[in-house]
Design brief:
single chain, alpha/beta, TIM Barrel, 8-stranded parallel β-barrel, 8 strands
Length: 295
């Protein structure tokens, strides 16, 4: 039976005073304050920006020195959204291997890297006739790429060559069967390549649990459906502006605890609703609930 670890996506936010205390704090004090409350951190700055070597070194050092802390890393959007939609996997592979050298390998060497998270595009379909809306002229035909299941396998192969346990988050409903489970073709590939499917609580994908590896990875995105689909490009703050109620958290706490008998390693739970420190409050509530919920 595995362990449950709870944390947040990101840590260096100016409005998280309740976690770090009031006043201007140095980065060293902020990351130490974070790990005093949580054993897991999902590095999210790496998704939109080139990795900051100082942040990587600092997080790795503090996670190691404070003991039993884990770091999960979001892989860059350039690879998971943009280059994953190109006709060939070569450019995506090059970006991810360079990213690994700068961000993943130092954390692996520090002994704190747990998982890597590949957040796929909403436009990443199962079907091979996928169309990606990149054109500006509405009269110009959309480009058609042979993606789908073949591209998923190429992605999984690349992720398997990177340090850390790979996790993929799918955001398009074409990967779901009629009984609200992952399609068998995709599930078989995840098992073959040892990649964990992220369990998502959010507007874009249903809560689907697939035990395909010894781990589970749960991401709470918020339930702000009204703002979630307003412009699919970019990462609008308003999309993640949501605070889970106690009853919503308790329902999921029970579901997460029910995964323990089929989890050999870890269940990692990450809150992404960062505006206004809502992720902090909900993560702390979830930690408390998970320590008291019984089967």
């Amino acid at each position: 039976m595995g362990a449950i670890e709870v944390g947040t996506s990101g840590w260096e936010y100016g409005d998280w005073q309740e976690l770090y205390g009031k006043g201007s704090l140095k980065r060293e004090e902020m990351i130490s304050g974070y790990f005093q409350h949580f054993d897991l951190l999902e590095l999210s700055s790496t998704y939109l920006y080139r990795p900051d070597p100082e942040e990587i070194e600092l997080v790795g050092e503090r996670a190691h020195s404070m003991g039993n802390k884990e770091v999960s890393v979001k892989l860059p959007r350039k690879a998971s959204y943009d280059l994953a939609m190109e006709e060939g996997p070569g450019p995506m592979r090059d970006v991810l291997f360079d990213f690994s050298r700068i961000a993943l390998q130092p954390l692996e060497d520090a002994g704190v890297l747990s998982t890597t998270v590949f957040q796929s595009s909403h436009n990443f379909y199962l079907r091979g006739d996928i169309t990606y809306p990149t054109k500006r002229n509405i009269d110009e035909p959309l480009p058609r790429y042979d993606l789908g299941i073949r591209r998923l396998e190429e992605i999984l192969e690349i992720l398997g060559d990177l340090p850390g346990q790979p996790v993929i988050e799918l955001r398009n409903s074409s990967w779901i069967s009629e009984d609200i489970s992952l399609l068998k073709e995709a599930r078989d590939l995840l098992i073959r390549y040892g990649c964990t499917l992220a369990v998502v609580d959010g507007p874009s994908f249903p809560w689907i649990v697939e035990t395909v590896t010894p781990d589970h990875y749960v991401r709470f995105l918020g339930r702000n459906r009204k703002n979630w689909f307003k412009g699919m490009r970019g990462e609008s703050i308003s999309r993640y502006d949501y605070s889970y109620t106690g009853s919503e958290l308790m329902e999921r706490a029970v579901s997460i605890r029910e995964l323990l008998p089929v989890t050999l390693n870890s269940i990692r739970v990450v809150f992404c609703n960062y505006p206004g420190a809502q992720a902090v409050r909900n993560a702390l509530e979830m930690k408390d609930m998970l320590s008291h919920v019984s089967f």
